[in-house]
Amino acid sequence: MTTSAPVLAVVDPYGAGAQIAPALREHGWSCVAVTTADQPPDPLVHTWQPRDFDHHVRHTGDVAELGGQLGRLGAVGVVTGLETGSELADALCARNFPEYANSPALSASRRDKAAAQRELARAGLASLRQVHTADFAEVEQWLRDNELADAPWLIVKPARSAGSDAVRRVRPGDELRTAFESMAGRRNALGNVEQAVLVQECVQGTEYSVDTFSVGGVHEICGVTRYTKHSSGSVVGIYDTVEFVAPDDPACRQLLPYAREVLDALGVRFGPMHAEIMLRPEGPVLIELNPRIAGGQMTFLSGMATGSSQLDRLVDFFLGRHRPASGYRLLQQVMSVFVTARRTGVIRNPESLSGLADLPTAVRSTVTVPPGGLVRQTSDVFSVLGRVVLADRDRDRVELDRRRVKRVERDLHIDPVEAL
Q1: Is the distance from CB of 307 to CB of 299 less than 8 angstroms?
Q2: Are 402 and 356 in contact (CB under 8 A)?
Q3: Does the pLDDT value for residue 384 go beyond 50?
């Protein structure tokens, strides 16, 4: 059965992808939810909103059957919600909507962190040295072959997760073996069982994200953000801040050409992409590519910082209003400041967090404390206490409030308890 309204299918409409259907429904569109599993990933269950969809189709493994079902529902396109659905969205587009299809042959490289690095190396672009295996003996051989046995640090991570889930910084030797063995066979935050473990060299520099929207292989830059992160023991990549940078920032002169080359090498032709790139002294290198709209409130932040977002561009495209632009401009300074818990325990002064929303440049605060004040030590983006969004034309005012937020975080009184 078809509807008179135009229909878009969203595969795994969770996380930032949950915003797509409501945005299109405001313009009279109908949306179909296509899901690849019985349940959303645990950290994103709260983002699943069935009421935003007129139909819900569960993928059972037959792409041709699913494509035919979407055709009968009148779908005019398929987009990815969460990266767990990107390979299915690629297959459906290649079958039903080739004008929106990214390279089918490179679908895995846009989803899998290890495959992405292999493809970049094949294309002659800067990439990370790595080994992806279920056999620790192969890791030991890789260390010898790459003269990394004495490296100060290595990175161990799942190849198909998100949100800095289980990313660990370890030393070669016993630490590496322990981390490797604990990760093999583990179910990651997105619900995938990681049979193999990804081990990479640890690179130093400043991390950025480059958010894009592509049409016909032309990659429009929607925004660039600079990350600051910290480590706690083996836990690496704990977010402190995400800040938008202007397109004329010196870093962009290196980041943007490289980002476009990455998208070309990974077969990107259409849709939003979120690239995380480390800018090292010797130049940029991809950390990972996420084939979806950027998460973590980025649609909201981008709208404030630049006046538009990847979601706006996606909606405009399907409404026939898309006009290719040369890039973006920074309207004001926008920063998202993360509040973390330095240990597992009970917060004894939760009232200190209540005033964060009242800071002079604060626009929004999502910082909450569970009943009783019991919190887990922050280890990834899913376990932060929340974020405070700061915005102002004067960066000094934003920076002053950032320090205030971090002072409150530092002064949290957390009585340690046994691990939850």
Answers
A1: no
A2: no
A3: yes
Q: How far apart, in whole angstroms, are the C-alpha atoms of residue 90 and residue 105?
A: 10
Q: Amino acid identity of 353?
A: L
- The CA distance from 258 to 282, in Å, is 13
On the question of pLDDT at 291 being above 90, the answer is: yes
The CATH topology of domain 206-416 is D-amino Acid Aminotransferase; Chain A, domain 1 (3.30.470)
DSSP letters spanning 66-112: HHHHHHHTTEEEEEESSGGGHHHHHHHHHHH-GGG---GGGHHHHH-
Residue 233 confidence (pLDDT): 65
Of 80-94, 126-140, 228-242, the one with minimum mean pLDDT is 228-242
pTM above threshold 0.70:
yes
Which whole number is the average pLDDT over 190-197? 77
> CB of 133 within 8 A of CB of 139?
yes
- Phi, psi at 121, each rounded to 5°: -65, -40
Q: Which residues, including other chains, have CB under 8 Å from residue 12's CB and lie 6 or more apart?
A: 34, 35, 36, 37, 40, 80, 81, 82, 83, 84, 85
Q: 129-201 — its CATH code?
A: 3.30.1490.20
**Crossing angle of helices 63-72 and 86-96, rounded to 10°:** 70
Pick among 3.40.50.20, 3.40.50.300, 3.40.50.2300, 3.30.750.24: CATH of 7-101: 3.40.50.20
Using one digit for the tens of pLDDT, what is the confidence trace for 300-359? Answer: 999 999 999 999 999 999 999 988 777 899 999 999 999 999 889 999 999 999 899 999
